[in-house]
């Protein structure tokens, strides 16, 4: 905990002292902006008024009913309760998510997670969260293509929401193909029995938050939520940077 707090403070100091350009488009900031994003990127990536389905975070119209989900998720059985997202996986936000996969771009990941927390502040209180869990990446995928976003998101969410980051809660126990390369009908089998809960004690009776950079079909989150509930979790919620449309 002490090491984690020190790392967070160190990163805040570096961001404050050396931030001279937008973390998303890398254009120079014309004036000091503590947000780290230029005004154009803020408007394009962080719309707090976006209408989204409470169940899957897909963009919906103003008169859509979300009691049973939207047209994107109504026929899906999910083990998680609700999803929040910063926006749709398109244009500037899509490019930002790709950049967030690289460890060196952790300031952008942390900044977008802060925006996610700010934009959905009323939802957090209702969830009464006890801990945050990152979608795990196995050690054999570490390196240049290592997806660092979930870990940094979990670190920032834990800091912003003042809840524990359950770092060692989950692990991936076998290899699988990247979900974005698969059609919808292949995704469920690809993530089935992919993860394992390390200790029931860390999840029993808790309301948990799972974080990841992108949600498309929801199958990865569904399998993790089902696993956490089987281990004793009371409720499972999901937070992602971007909501993408599934590929059939």
General description of the model:
The chain is α/β, with parallel strands linked by helices and 248 residues long. The protein has helices at residues 2-18, 39-45, 91-100, 106-119, 121-127, 149-161, 184-191, 219-230, and strands at 83-88, 131-134, 170-172, 195-197, 207-215, 235-243. The protein has a four-stranded parallel beta sheet. The protein has a two-stranded antiparallel sheet with strand order 3-4. Helix 8 (219-230) links the parallel strand 5 (207-215) and strand 6 (235-243). Helix 4 (106-119) crosses helix 6. The chain starts with a helix and ends in a 5-residue tail after the last strand. The model has no long low-confidence stretch (mean pLDDT 84).
- Topology, number of strands: 6
Shape: globular
Unreliably modeled segments: none
Compute the average pLDDT: 84
Strand order of the largest sheet: 1-6-5-2
Beta-strand content: 5-15%
**What assembly state would you assign to the polypeptide chains in this entry?**
single chain
Number of contiguous helices: 8
- How much helical structure, as a percent, in the residues? 25-40%
End-to-end C-alpha gap: 43 Å
Q: How can the largest sheet be summarized? A: 4 strands, parallel
- Helix and strand composition category: alpha/beta
Backbone CA Rg:
18 Å
> What sequence of helices (H) and strands (E) makes up the elements?
HHEHHHEHEHEEHE
In short:
The protein has helices spanning 2-18, 39-45, 91-100, 106-119, 121-127, 149-161, 184-191, 219-230; strands spanning 83-88, 131-134, 170-172, 195-197, 207-215, 235-243.
């Amino acid at each position: 905990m002490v090491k984690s707090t020190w790392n967070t403070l160190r990163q805040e100091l570096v961001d404050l002292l050396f931030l001279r350009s937008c973390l998303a488009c890398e254009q120079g900031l014309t004036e000091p902006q503590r947000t780290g994003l230029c005004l154009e990127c803020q408007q394009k990536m962080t719309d707090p008024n976006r209408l989204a389905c409470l169940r899957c975070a897909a963009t919906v119209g103003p008169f859509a009913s979300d009691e049973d989900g939207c047209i994107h998720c109504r026929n899906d059985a999910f083990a998680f309760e609700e999803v929040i997202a910063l926006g749709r996986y398109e244009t500037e936000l899509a490019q930002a998510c790709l950049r967030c996969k690289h460890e060196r771009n952790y300031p952008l990941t942390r900044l977008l997670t802060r925006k996610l927390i700010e934009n959905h502040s009323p939802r957090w209180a209702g969830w009464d969260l006890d801990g945050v869990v990152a979608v795990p990446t196995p050690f054999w995928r570490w390196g240049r293509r290592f997806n660092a976003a979930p870990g940094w998101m979990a670190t920032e969410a834990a800091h912003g929401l003042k809840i524990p980051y359950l770092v060692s809660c989950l692990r991936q126990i076998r290899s699988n193909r990247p979900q974005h390369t698969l059609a919808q009908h292949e995704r469920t089998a690809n993530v089935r029995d992919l993860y394992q809960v390390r200790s029931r004690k860390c999840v029993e009776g808790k309301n948990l938050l799972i974080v990841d950079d992108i949600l498309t079909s929801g199958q990865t989150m569904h399998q993790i939520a089902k696993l956490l509930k089987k281990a004793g979790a009371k409720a499972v919620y999901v937070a992602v940077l971007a909501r993408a449309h599934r590929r059939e």
